[in-house]
Design goal:
The complex is a heterodimer of chains A (510) and B (323). Chain A has 510 residues and is an alpha/beta fold. Chain A contains 18 helices and 24 strands. Chain A has 3 domains: 237 residues, P-loop containing nucleotide triphosphate hydrolases (Rossmann fold); 175 residues, P-loop containing nucleotide triphosphate hydrolases (Rossmann fold, 3-Layer(aba) Sandwich); 76 residues, no CATH class. In chain A, the strands form 6 sheets. A 6-stranded mixed sheet of chain A has the order 6-9-10-3-11-12, with helices on both faces. A 6-stranded mixed sheet of chain A has the order 18-21-22-15-23-24, with helices on both faces. Chain A has a 4-stranded antiparallel sheet with strand order 2-1-4-5, covered by helices on one side. With 323 residues, chain B is mostly helical. Chain B has a single domain, classed as ABC transporter involved in vitamin B12 uptake, BtuC (Orthogonal Bundle). In chain B, 50% of the residues are buried. The chains are: A alpha/beta (510), B mainly alpha (323). The structure holds adenosine-5'-triphosphate (ATP) and magnesium ion.
C-alpha cells in the first residue's frame, strides 16, 4: 500500500505543556485509520497539525512523496486534506444547503444555481442516509447528530484525498454511525483515506484497518485490526492498565418520588409535538431516557430544566406541581442540567476550568460576595481527582482544554452544585473509557445520597448498563418504564425502530 | 498558540506596556514644557484623568460583560445640571448641600435603570439602546438648563470634590476609590466572576440558572450611578454646569478601557489597564495643549491610540486563536 501522508517526529509545545512528543504517523491509500487515547493525549492536536490549523513546533510532513508545510488550513485543503473538527462549526442561522456550500457556492449563468445546490445537497445527504434532513431547514434547529452529518456532508462535498474526523461519532446515534461507516467504506473504495478519532473502541474495531494509540503525547501503539485484536488490548495500550467493568456503580435503595412528568407533551426542535411523556424519577435512582436522533431527548431535558415550555401536561416535584419558566426556577428547585452542547451552553471558554466548575456554587464558596479562592481551589482539587484530571488543568482557560476534559468540567459543575435532580444530556460524549467509568461511578455515588439522576443518552450500551429504569422515546409512542435487565440490546433496538411493541413494561412504580 | 505566542507573550499583559509609554511622555513633557510640572497643570491633569476614570472603571466592568453604554457623557451632563438646579431651586434649604450628591447620583441611577430595562429586559442591543438614551438625555440637559450655563453651587458641595486631603485632590481620591472598588468587584467577587461569564458566554450562564437579566440590569444602573458621580465631580471642578458638559466622555471612557486591554468581545477585563489608559490619554491630551498644537489634533491622536491598542491586543498578533 502506498502512503498518502507520512508525518515524522512531530512535536507540539504549548505554553507549559508538551502536547506531542516525536510522534510518527502515516496514512496509506484507501486506509481507514483509527486514532485513540485518553483525554488530553494529543489526538486533536495531531489532527489539527495534519490539517494545517496549527503548526508543529518541530517535525516533518511528507504528502504524495513531497515534503509539505501547511501554513494554514487552506494550504492543507489544497493538498487534499479535509478536516471535520471536534466541535461542529456551522452557521446556525443559515440553512443546511447554505452551510454545505458556504464559500463554495456553485454558480450558473445567472449567479448561484440554487436548484443545483439543492439537488447536490439532497444527494449527499441521501448517501449519508440523512434524507430526513430538509436542506432548506435552519441548521441551528437540527438535532446535534444531524448537524454533525451536515458538517460531514459539507466536507465530503468539497472533496479530498484524506478525510480527517475528530470524534465524528460522539454526537451520532448508532444508526447514524452506521451510515457514516458506509460512507467511509465508499471513500475507501475510491482509494481515499480517512482518519478518525473515537472513544468508542467497539466502533474502532468494527471499521478501522489500523489503530494508532497515543498516550501523553507519545505514539505508544500501532495495531493492525485483524481477528486477534481486542478491546482489552487497546485499553491496555491507552491507559497502561485494564479498566474493569465500565458500568459498575453503587446501587442504592429507591427513596421518595422526586421529579415526575404527567402526560407532558413537548415540541421538538423541528416543531413536532411528541406523544405524552410520563416519567417518574425517585431519589436513589438513575433513570434512562433513550431513543433515536430527533425524537426529543434533548428537548425533554430542556423542558425539565426550564429552557423550553411544557406544551401540555404537568411537572411535579415531590408530588407538588411546579412551573419552570426559566433555568432560574430549575436551579431554585435544585434541578441541574449537564447540557449536551458544551461549547454553546456548557462552558465559558474565557474562564478557567476551575471558574467554570464553580459557576453555580459561588454562593456557598463566598462570604459577603467575596469568593474565597482557597476554598474554591480545594473544591476544584477534590473534584478533579474524582474524574482523574490533572491539577494543571484547573487554572487553564477552558478554551485550551482538550474536548474530553472540557466535558469533565461541565459534569463537575453539576456534581458540586446542590442539585438534587440531575439531568445529564449525553454526559459522556467525548470522554475516554476510564473517565466514563468514573462518571458512572460518580452518578451512582450521587444518587446514593438520595438524589435522582436522569440520563438522556442515545448510547444503548450506556443506558442498558447504567440505568435502574429505562424509558424509550420513539416517534410512534413513549414506552416504558423498563426495569434494569428487562431489555437487552436487541430488544431495545426493536423498540426504538418500532419493530416490537412495548412487551414487558414494569409495573408503574409508586 | 505556538512559538509566536512566546514572542508576543508580553502583550497578553499589554496594559503594563502602557507604563513605560506613560513615563516616556511624562519625562519628555517635563523637558519640553515648563508649564507641565506646575501644580496648576498637575491639578488640571488630575481632574481630567479622574473624571474619565470614574466612568471608565464602570465601563470596564460593563465591557467585560459584553455590554456598552454610550449615554454616560449625557448622564454626566444631566447630573451636573441636576445638581445645579438643586441649589438654584433652594432644595439645599431642606435637604442640605450634600443632598445634591444623592440627587446627582440618583439621576444617574435612573438613566442607568432605563438603559438596563431597554437592554436586559426588552433585549435591545446595548449599542442602539444607549445611543438612543444618549441623545434623549442630552436633550433633557438642554431642556432643564434652557441651554444656559448654571452656577451658584454651595461652596461646601464644591469642597467635597475639589478640595484636598493630605495634599491629594479629592477628585483623585474619588476616582482612585472607584477604580479600587471596581477592581475588587471584578477580580474578587461573585458578581465580577459572573460579569466575566456573561461576557464570555451568556447562554451558558442562562442555562446554568443564573439571573442574567438582573445582573445586566444591575450593571447598567451601576454605570449610570458612576456617570452621575463623574458629573458631580465635573460640576464641582468647574463650579458650573454647562449644557455641553460631558460631551464625548463616553468615547474617552471606551477608548481607555480598550487601550488598557479589556476585550471588546467581553469575557476579560482589567481595571489596572484602564487606570493606565486613562492616565496616558490625559497626559497626551494635556501635552497637545501645552505644546501649543491645535486641539483638533487631539481627536486625531486619540483615534490613533485606540487603533494601535486594538491592533496590539488583537488575537491575530497574540496568536490566541480559537481552537
Ligand atoms: N491552545 C492550547 N494551549 C495550551 N494547551 C493546549 C491547547 N490546546 C490543547 N492543549 C493541551 O494539549 C494536550 C492535548 O490536547 P488534545 O486536544 O490534543 O487532546 P485529545 O487527545 O484530543 O483529548 P480529547 O480526547 O479530550 O479530545 C492537552 O493537555 C491540552 O490541555
Ligand atoms: Mg480531542
Amino acid at each position: 500500500m502506498k502512503n498518502i501522508l507520512t508525518a515524522s517526529k512531530i512535536c507540539k509545545q504549548y505554553a507549559g505543556t508538551r502536547a506531542l512528543n516525536e510522534v510518527d504517523f502515516e496514512i496509506g491509500e484507501g486506509e481507514i485509520l483509527g486514532l485513540i487515547g485518553e483525554n488530553g493525549a494529543g489526538k486533536s492536536t495531531l489532527m489539527r497539525i495534519l490539517c494545517g490549523i496549527e503548526q508543529p513546533t518541530s517535525g516533518d510532513i511528507v504528502m504524495h512523496g513531497k515534503p509539505v508545510e501547511f501554513s494554514g488550513p487552506q494550504a492543507a485543503q489544497a493538498e487534499g486534506i479535509a478536516m471535520i473538527p471536534q466541535e461542529v462549526l456551522l452557521v446556525d442561522e443559515l440553512t443546511v444547503v447554505e452551510n454545505i456550500f458556504l464559500g463554495h457556492e456553485e454558480s450558473g449563468a445567472f449567479g448561484l444555481s440554487k436548484r443545483q445546490m439543492l439537488a447536490d445537497t439532497r444527494a449527499i445527504l441521501a448517501e449519508l442516509d440523512s434524507q430526513q434532513v430538509d436542506p432548506e431547514h435552519l441548521t441551528g434547529n437540527l438535532p446535534k447528530g444531524s448537524q454533525q452529518m451536515v458538517a460531514i456532508a459539507r466536507r465530503v462535498m468539497q472533496g479530498g484525498d484524506v478525510f480527517v474526523m475528530d470524534e465524528p461519532t460522539a454526537s451520532l446515534t448508532g444508526e447514524e454511525t452506521q451510515s457514516l461507516f458506509k460512507l467511509l467504506k465508499k471513500l475507501k473504495g475510491e482509494g481515499k483515506a480517512s482518519v478518525f478519532i473515537s472513544h468508542r473502541l467497539e466502533e474502532m474495531l468494527e471499521i478501522c484497518d489500523r489503530i494508532v494509540v497515543l498516550r501523553d503525547g507519545e505514539h505508544v501503539g500501532n495495531f493492525i485490526n485483524d481477528d486477534t485484536l481486542t478491546k482489552d488490548k487497546l485499553v491496555a495500550a491507552m491507559v497502561g492498565s485494564a479498566v474493569a467493568n465500565e458500568f459498575a456503580r453503587t446501587v442504592s435503595h429507591i427513596g421518595e418520588l422526586m421529579l415526575e412528568t404527567d402526560k407532558v407533551v413537548i415540541s421538538t426542535f423541528q416543531g413536532r409535538k411528541t406523544h405524552p411523556i410520563s416519567i417518574q424519577a425517585h431519589a436513589g435512582e438513575v433513570v434512562g431516557i433513550t431513543g433515536l436522533a430527533g425524537v426529543g431527548k434533548t428537548e425533554l431535558a430542556h423542558v425539565l430544566s426550564g429552557l423550553r415550555p411544557v406544551v401540555e401536561g404537568e411537572l411535579r416535584l415531590r408530588g407538588r406541581p411546579i412551573t419552570l419558566r426559566s433555568p432560574v426556577d430549575a436551579l431554585k428547585n435544585k434541578i441541574g442540567l449537564v447540557s449536551e452542547d458544551r461549547r454553546a451552553e456548557g462552558l465559558v471558554l474565557e474562564l478557567t476550568a476551575l471558574a467554570n466548575m464553580t459557576l453555580t456554587s459561588l454562593k456557598k464558596l463566598s462570604r459577603l460576595g467575596r469568593i474565597e479562592k482557597d476554598r474554591e481551589r480545594q473544591l476544584g482539587l477534590l473534584m478533579k481527582d474524582k474524574l482523574n484530571m490533572r491539577t494543571e488543568y484547573l487554572g487553564r482557560d477552558a478554551n485550551h482544554l482538550s474536548g474530553g476534559n472540557q466535558q469533565k468540567v461541565v459534569i463537575i459543575r453539576q456534581l458540586c452544585s446542590e442539585a438534587e435532580v440531575l439531568l445529564l444530556d449525553e454526559p459522556t460524549k467525548g470522554i475516554d473509557i476510564g473517565a466514563k467509568a468514573e462518571v458512572y461511578r460518580l452518578i451512582g455515588d450521587l444518587v446514593a445520597e438520595q438524589k435522582a439522576a436522569i440520563l438522556f443518552s442515545s448510547e444503548p450500551q450506556e443506558v442498558l448498563g447504567v440505568c435502574d429504569k429505562l424509558y424509550v422515546l420513539t416517534s410512534h409512542g413513549f414506552l416504558g418504564p423498563y426495569a434494569k435487565g428487562a431489555l437487552d440490546y436487541a430488544g431495545l433496538m426493536a423498540l426504538e425502530f418500532g419493530t416490537a411493541t412495548s412487551d414487558t413494561p414494569m409495573e408503574a412504580a409508586e | 498558540m505556538n512559538s509566536q505566542n512566546k514572542a508576543f507573550g508580553f502583550i497578553q499583559d499589554h496594559h503594563l506596556q502602557l507604563l513605560p509609554v506613560i513615563l516616556l511622555v511624562a519625562v519628555a513633557m517635563t523637558i519640553l514644557s515648563e508649564s507641565f510640572m506646575t501644580s496648576q497643570n498637575m491639578i488640571n491633569l488630575a481632574n481630567r484623568v479622574s473624571i474619565n476614570l470614574i466612568i471608565a472603571s464602570g465601563m470596564t466592568l460593563l465591557i467585560t460583560s459584553e455590554g456598552i453604554d454610550l449615554s454616560v457623557g449625557s448622564t454626566v451632563g444631566l447630573s451636573a445640571v441636576g445638581a445645579a438646579i438643586y441649589f438654584q431651586n433652594g432644595w439645599d434649604a431642606s435637604f442640605g448641600p450634600y443632598g445634591a450628591i444623592v440627587f446627582g447620583v440618583a439621576v444617574g441611577a435612573a438613566i442607568g435603570l432605563v438603559n438596563g430595562i431597554l437592554v436586559a429586559l426588552i433585549g435591545l442591543p446595548a449599542f442602539i439602546a444607549t445611543l438612543g438614551t444618549m441623545l434623549a438625555v442630552r436633550g433633557l440637559v438642554f431642556i432643564t438648563s434652557s441651554g444656559r450655563t448654571i452656577m451658584g453651587f454651595d461652596p461646601r458641595f464644591i469642597e467635597v470634590f475639589s478640595g484636598f486631603t493630605f495634599g491629594i485632590p479629592r477628585a483623585v481620591i474619588v476616582a482612585g476609590l472607584t477604580a479600587l472598588v471596581a477592581a475588587y468587584v471584578l477580580n474578587k467577587t461573585t458578581t465580577g466572576r459572573l460579569l466575566q461569564g456573561l461576557g464570555g458566554n451568556e447562554r451558558c450562564l442562562y442555562t446554568a440558572g443564573i439571573r442574567v437579566k438582573r445582573l445586566k440590569l444591575g450593571s447598567y444602573v451601576m454605570m449610570g450611578m458612576l456617570a452621575g458621580l463623574a458629573g458631580l465631580t465635573l460640576a464641582a471642578s468647574m463650579s458650573a454646569a454647562e449644557p455641553f458638559a460631558g460631551s464625548w466622555y463616553e468615547l474617552d471612557a471606551i477608548a481607555v478601557v480598550v487601550m488598557g486591554g479589556t476585550a471588546l468581545t467581553g469575557g476579560r477585563g482589567t481595571v489596572m489597564g484602564t487606570v493606565l489608559g486613562a492616565i496616558l490619554l490625559g497626559l497626551v491630551a494635556n501635552s497637545i495643549i501645552l505644546l501649543g498644537i491645535s486641539a483638533y489634533y487631539q481627536t486625531f491622536v486619540v483615534g490613533l491610540m485606540i487603533l494601535v491598542a486594538i491592533v496590539m491586543g488583537s488575537p491575530v498578533l497574540t496568536g490566541a486563536r480559537a481552537n
